[in-house]
Design goal:
It contains seven helices and no strands. It is mainly α and about 180 residues long.
Amino acid sequence: MDTVQRMQKIAGLLDGIAETTGRAVSWLTLAMVLVTLAVVVLRYLFDIGSIALQESVTYLHAVVFMLGAAYTLKYDGHVRVDIFYQQRTPRMRAWINLAGTVLLLMPVCIFIFASSLDYVTASWSIHEGSREAGGIDGVYLLKTVIPLMACLLFLQGCAVALRSLLVIGGHGIPEDADASPEREL
């Protein structure tokens, strides 16, 4: 197996992690809608309030946002300044992606991971729970998603960098904006 094939295989494996995580986490959006519906029905039809149910919507949203970030990167769904990007050749776009990934994304992921470890460890040490009576006693679990997000995003950044290097070297297929899952339907 030559270097190009190895790079393609590694990028494919890393893409698979983001794909699996993103698809699994996407089901939490349905759960979020159903829990929100339950909160509204309980409150306005039965005059019953639940802090835990309300907090669970926030937890679900945070998990979807953080664990879905790598999936979003895989499908090129993050914000970028298209005025500089869209009019470029596929090779120039690959250079822009490589530079942005190596100079911006990866250092930010490393910073988030490193700076969140003490925060998460402190939360785990006291099994931090909700400040609200009747809230969810798993704040420490939610905080654990922060370094996990940084790791997943970093791994997907590696896939983006590998694919960019392949395109720059003339061995890769330029990323196609129409390849996102919602456009396949």
